[in-house]
């Protein structure tokens, strides 16, 4: 489990701070080049919209990165938000970790489900 408690940066912040500002890019031209609306680019920059797989591919091509970079940034941000944004109901584990590990070593990787009480 990830022990990081600091909120990760939204990929839009990375885009803005590491690419748009240093390269002094015109937002309309960038949006046109990426094939997205300027408003969509604006929402991504301020963290109100997510980087989709399609946009990740375009960003990767535009900035010589990989789509995985943008998707992983978005995934880490989304997971952190899901864990910290609002209280969640505690979920009861359905199998014991030791038992699952032992079974995987023997080639039977399906976890044994505890019977409901």
CATH-derived architecture: Orthogonal Bundle
Give the amount of beta strand, in percent: under 5%
CATH superfamily placement: lambda repressor-like DNA-binding domains
Quantity of strands, as a count: 0
Q: Using only CA atoms, what is the Rg? A: 20 Å
Low-confidence stretches: none
Helix-strand pattern, N to C?
HHHHHH
Label the structural class. Answer: mainly alpha
The third-level CATH topology is 434 Repressor (Amino-terminal Domain)
The pLDDT mean sits at: 88
Tally of DSSP helical segments: 6
Shape label = elongated
Distance between the termini: 28 Å
Q: Quick one: biggest sheet? A: none
Helix content: 40-55%
Question: Could you give a short description of this structure?
Answer:
The protein is mostly helical.
